[in-house]
């Protein structure tokens, strides 16, 4: 059946999976861990920017893992490592590897390679780019990537205070979009704005106090949306020198979840990007 | 200090709090449990549709509980029970009551009273109403209520398959909006649509396959948005006889979180409701 049984959580062949609880594998090996069938399907598809190195499946999910690999090989769309290894472990070994119950029973190890420079991600022509400043919550980053994919953002730029989109939980919440939407991470918000402006992007800062309503913006062809945290928002020094747009809300309850706010703004800004026929 | 110490999780004075893990207190006593400082502040304010019966605070949060009550009494905005009781328990008792660690250390018991009939919630004049069909996930219902409050929805109608907005977790995710936005729950989606149409609302069904783009709708004064689950969506029998609108998305990744989708649709539909000067 071409499966590698693992009976011992200390087996060196699954060593990288034992770090699943760590938030940040970057510095270590340039690896990441993806979780669940939907995300693994994406990682094994041509849409993924990253390559899988191996799969670790609970016994009950071994058949699914074989199917996923066979399908990817049949399509021939990506270079899989010669015989992408599938390790199979009992639920007990699986849980002890992760330190918590992994309900979905399917993990994959991926190689992230080197993160690109922001400038390398900015395409020519009409484009929508999203910038994240200080977003340290993995759920929020995952949710934002899901929206970025849905609304055709060309890239997501994250400042150095924002968290890693390739952390397992962020990938899961993004439903795999963190594997498909190009991103860079590092530097300051000022540097990010400088790069965007230098490449001809008009930068719109999202803020509840923005003088311009999202409903009224005539979007330029090259547009970037900048989003800060739910609590603090974007730094005043940035807001004061950028075009700042607000989401109109009912009086007295001006509170939106960050992912929802990003979705609303991306939906408003994406017009010509995903539907060239309208403005 | 006017606090009631509780040394025993079995103390009958805190009996209702012991059911915090139950999803549905409705049938039992018409009670609900709210959690956390932000939500309690709202429950103790004039914005809440419901009255608090008591507070249960961990030792470290007793001062906050006293402050919250004093502030509500000072405002005199609501009828508090004569001396709203504040029970104080050790973290150990608190955790054993809940069966899990309550990190926020502040709970309140509220009385829900009788849920109104849907028709009683529909105001005269221009209004936006939200209808939920089969939304059984408490996170989603909470997220949707947060958006309904942000965009000035007059009411949320839930069918009988949708879950209770007054379940603790839904209230928490809604940041208290489940306590402020009027709602009804019960009956079928067909009955809901009938009630809305009978009161002069045009009903728009949100669906990825909708022939009309949300960008292009000229919203009538009385408008209702109908939202189904992330997976199944709304029943085809409903979609076929309602005006169905879609959120335009990039090709190949037409997946949005339900709360985000509801936020985008409410933002598009709320125009004249929260900003009478524009269409």
TrEMBL record, chains A, B:
Transferase found in the keyword field: yes
SUPFAM superfamilies recorded: alpha/beta knot (SSF75217), L30e-like (SSF55315)
One BP annotation, GO: RNA processing
Gene Ontology molecular function: RNA binding; RNA methyltransferase activity
InterPro entries xref list: Alpha/beta_knot_MTases, Ribosomal_eL30-like_sf, rRNA_Methyltransferase, SpoU_MeTrfase, tRNA_m1G_MTases_N
Residues in tRNA/rRNA methyltransferase SpoU type domain copies: 128-267
Key words, A-Z: Methyltransferase, Transferase
The protein's name: tRNA G18 (Ribose-2'-O)-methylase SpoU
Organism of this sequence: Enterovirga rhinocerotis
């Amino acid at each position: 059946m071409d499966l590698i049984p693992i009976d011992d959580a200390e087996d060196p062949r699954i060593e990288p999976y034992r770090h699943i609880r760590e938030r940040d594998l970057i510095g270590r090996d340039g690896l990441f861990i993806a979780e669940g069938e939907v995300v693994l399907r994406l990682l094994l598809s041509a849409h993924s920017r990253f390559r899988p190195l191996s799969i670790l499946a609970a016994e009950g999910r071994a058949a699914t893992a074989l199917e996923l690999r066979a399908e990817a090989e049949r399509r021939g769309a990506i270079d899989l490592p010669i015989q992408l290894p599938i390790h199979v472990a009992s639920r007990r070994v699986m849980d002890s590897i992760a330190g918590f119950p992994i309900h979905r029973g399917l993990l994959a190890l991926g190689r992230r390679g080197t993160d690109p420079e922001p400038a390398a991600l900015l395409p020519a022509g009409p484009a929508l780019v999203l910038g994240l400043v200080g977003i340290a919550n993995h759920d929020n980053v995952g949710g934002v990537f899901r929206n970025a994919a849905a609304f055709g953002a060309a890239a997501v730029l994250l400042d150095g205070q924002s968290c890693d989109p390739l952390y397992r939980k962020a990938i899961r919440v993004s439903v795999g979009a963190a594997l498909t939407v190009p991103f860079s991470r590092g530097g300051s918000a000022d540097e990010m704005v400088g790069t965007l402006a230098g490449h001809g992007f008009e930068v719109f800062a999202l803020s509840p106090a923005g003088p311009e309503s999202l409903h009224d913006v005539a979007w330029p062809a090259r547009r970037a949306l900048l989003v800060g945290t739910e609590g603090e928002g974007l730094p005043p020094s940035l807001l004061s020198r950028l075009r700042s747009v607000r989401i109109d809300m009912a009086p007295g309850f001006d509170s939106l979840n960050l992912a929802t706010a990003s979705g609303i703004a991306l939906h408003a800004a994406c017009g010509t990007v995903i539907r060239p026929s309208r403005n």
